[in-house]
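User: Modeling request: complex.
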Amino acid sequence: MDTVAAEGLLSASWLVIALPLLGAAVLLLGGRRTDAWGHLLGTATVVAAFVLGLLCTVQLAGVEGHAVDAELFTFVSTGSLDVGAGLLVDPLSATFMLLITGVGSLIHVYSIGYMAHDPRRRRFFAYLNLFVAAMLLLVLGDNYVALYVGWEGVGLASYLLIAFWHDRPSAATAAKKAFVMNRVGDVGLALAIFVMFAQLGTVSYEGVFGGVGALAGGTLTALGLLLLLGACGKSGQFPLQAWLPDAMEGPTPVSALIHAATMVTAGVYLIARSAPIYDLTPTARGVVLAVGAITLLYGAIVGCAYDDIKKVLAYSTVSQIGYMFLAVGLGPVGYAAAIAHLLTHGFFKAGLFLGAGSVMHAMGDEVDMRRFGGLARRLPVTFVTFGLGYLALIGFPFLSGYWTKDAIIEAALDRGDWAGWLLGGVAVLGAGLTAFYMTRLMLMTFFGRPRWTEDQHPHESPSVMTAPMVVLAVGSVAAGFLLVQVFPLDTWLEPVFGVPEEAEHVVAPALVGLVVTAVMALGVLAAWLFVGRREVPEVAPARVSPVVRAARRALYADTVNESLFMRPGQWLTRALVWVDNRGVDGAVNGLAATLGGSSSRLGRAQTGFVRSYALGMLGGAVVVAGALLAVTAG
Amino acid sequence: MTIEAPDLSLAALAPLLFVFGAACIGVLVEAFGPRDSRHPVQVAVALVGTLGGLVTTVLLAGTREVTAGGALAVDGAGLFLQATIAGLGALSLLLFAERNLDPARSAFVVSAAVPAGSVRDRELLTVQRVQTEVYPLATFAIGGMMLFVTANDLLVMFVALEVLSLPLYLISGLARRRRLLSQEAAVKYFLLGSFASAFFLYGVALVYGATGTVRLAGVREAVAGAEGGTLVVLGLALLVVGLLFKASVAPFHTWTPDVYQGAPTPVTAFMAACTKVAAFGAILRLLYVAFGTEEWTWRPLVYGVAIVSMVIGAVLGLTQTDLKRMLAYSSVAHAGFLLTGVLGLPATGDAAGSGLPAVMFYLLAYGLTTLGAFAVLTLVRSGEGEATHLSQWAGLAQRSPLTAAVMSLFLLALAGIPLTSGFTGKFAVFRAAIEDGAWPLALVALLASAVAAFFYLRVIVLMYFSEPAVDGPTVGVPGLPTTIVLAVTAAATLLLGIVPGAVLGLADRAAIFVG
Amino acid sequence: MLSTYVPIVGLFALAAAFALFSVAVAPFVGPRRYNRAKLEAYECGIEPVDQPLHGGRFPVKYYLTAMLFIVFDIEIVFLYPWAVANDALGVFGLVEMVVFIGTVFLAYAYVWRRGGLEWD
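Assistant: Request completed. Predicted assembly structure:
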């Protein structure tokens, strides 16, 4: 990776991070004084960051090699560890920068309407700004420590935003769960950075990727697996996926921005960025593939069973990120496909979440789809934009998802071996399941008989909310075509990932497209047969097959977590409390009593009489003199 | 016959001249100044003197010189300690000058000669007249302390000891409230202090008799030449006893709780912070310069005394119910911790030792923290004066969260909790001791710290987790002087805990004795 | 080494022996002729009174005066040797002496202004 020093506008790329950070600082420190205009400032900083990012990217396109390093200052300098705070603007980070600030701007605008009646709106915008700043640092940093700082920053912002309505116990619990599970992943990332420093003596991308070739195979594999652990935690991948659906307790714009479009894709970014490491360790790459494939299916299966509209979308996110992991696990042929899918997913999933938010807004914060129905006529704009996002997600021909998902399936099949067939098959099956659960969601929400209660009067959301939805819907329709056919993303990313070898197509791309579309159609049909044709019961039926029961409980993921980690943990703490109470406290209390007793006994020497004090001093002096004489004599 | 005039570097003497000059001017102001304007003028004179002393020591940084005919050693360590004393002294003077807290506008009695409890005394109790003699007296004491740490001669050291002690005896007895307790403290301090001075003077005599000189360098040469034997050792023992008394090291600490409790709280703060610095400065100079070659004679003694002091301070502190007495025992325990650092290696020549800078840093950190803690004590008052009984502090956090928070900071620092100056200081002295192989001592010190932490934390628990008493104390609103003291000490306690690098480096560079 | 102290110890012994001897022998060999003046605590100075003024204590002023006397006494102790050695000490000695006297004078001024020299 050859970089050139930043010049011109690019040397001001730090402003992209600084602007939202400044917004957060002003809003948090300014207190109530900023209540009146805080949301406008928060939005303005992100929009400004987007404009600046756009200009930077345009300029970057003209730079030879498309990679720019902007050295800022020395962040840590201790002993042999030198961490400079520098920014790396290359096609990959620029792409992310645009996604984050672009989608971020839209969601900030949407939130102005969505949070209009919340008394703590200013705080919400402060946290959102903080998140945007941290996420930008994560993708723009030129070393792993900067990435880690941003990584923890987005974790913090995510925690604060999930628990934004912290007076709800479920929100507080969900935030805690997200934080703890992220921590498990963060340990992996931190250890990976330690390994890099211990083995290579540097943590900068340049240094690590330059020296990584000299490492032993075992170290490389460990490095790859540790990074993967971090990525799994942040991106809600198996086995650390359980927090992501719960995170939907946060306000819906948060779900759209953080838990669909940006933060949860940080894991994909991490693995794509660390491509030079994974290129050298097929084992770790194989594990990435397995994680992606398992999560892809898992998310799709569980998504079929839930009735909570946001949870279904959340499992859909889990599943779609599984596709991206699958793609980056494929190696050079998959990187560009993964990033392309990440971008289009950012558009349509953010749009879907905003649509869901609009539905909830209309229905008085109801999330149970069994209580929706027939909303298409009441919420026309939401219906159309949501519908376009839906079509993009299930891979309706020539919409965004169709282009990018097919690319991943093709890349998997192109491996040509049994694993390629297996992965391709899983991906195609996942596409069918996606079509099923998303169609089910559409049918239950927008079609059929209205099942809402008397006092609910669904109404369309204000234009400040619908405008971002429209923009995202346009993106959902066009982004895939633009990124694959008009401005090929793989060419743009070549400076980062190199030129992949032209693969032998095992199956003709046209045929793949046809098959995937057919499977998708099957999924839609199945959903129509199971859901659309019949009356939707307002209470979920209790007599269901074991498969459905398992899916409703998220395939027992929480049960496994509880019995494997939580219960033994509780037993351990209980045992420790017992030991503490009986053994340690006993010893401590005994010791305290002894000390207290000797204190009062010794204290009797403090009589208050000068004569006894003087005698004590004389005694001390005699002892001192005697001791000194004894030492010299001895 | 002509006698050569000794060389006299006025520049090197400047800090002392500044402080003593201010004290003399203070006496003149007391004699000729109009009564109404005396208080502000005295405060100004005393502050100019001490701050002038502080500034001149800073300007002298880097000086290494023996002057005044060999009687004074102006060196890095001496200047560092002089600056510490001058700075802490100036802060103490600010506490003296506080006029907002006591309803009678001052912590000091109007006329010390009036018998306590007499009719005249009761009349004077409500008068708003202020006693101003404390300022020149305290300035003299500060000057004596600054002379003490640069004295390169046993006789000058003795003179400095008296110059610093006599004013302290006096101002200990000047409390406005609880006068009898205060006078008792002063008399006790005077009697025991004279006793200790006599030990010191006798030690000087014996050392002079054995070596024929009172210059520290001369003593060092003579001792290295194996002259003296038993007499020198006896002399050393008596000198050390005199100094350990001033540093309130057990078993010579018995005066500390009584005097700390009885003296006016600003004076207690002054004694706890400045006297400790001065006494340890002299101990270091005596042991490292005069008896540096006799290290193996005094090491076991310091070892033992340090353990006794830490244990007695920590254990006796447990059962105290008066905050001033508790802080007095804390002072005894901290004297033990400081002695732990004394066991680190002294600097020899240009090679920096570990003990000297560690002790110097500890003194600065402890002085600032303890000064702050006593300053907080002056804020919390009930009817007739300060509320120093532990039970009166129950639930203070509900009544005055800021006071409780600041006090907690100081107590945590005294307990040596990380991110406070107390931790850095303890870390430095324990490391110095361990590097020199005295790890069992460091172990005892750690255990003593743990025991001592109990009584510090107990106050915090009491302030935060107890229900406030119905007729609890009131928390006064401090005037500018006390506010400055609290702000400076709290900030220093935090900064020296979080970013101690600069000051540690300064102490390292300054840790040089000449002579 | 310790031998150099033998004369001093001898002197101590002599002094102690003399004191003991005088006290012990006087009652036996001394004449006993009593009168009123002989029964006074001191044969010179201030006439003792039955009760100290205001009951219980002597006025602190006696001590104050005594202390002031000592201050000037010490000044004299320093002035004599300086006067004797003035030629050898030169200007430096003069300057030092002026500083010393000035400092003592400072104390004198304080005592005088604050009424320490007035008996009532």
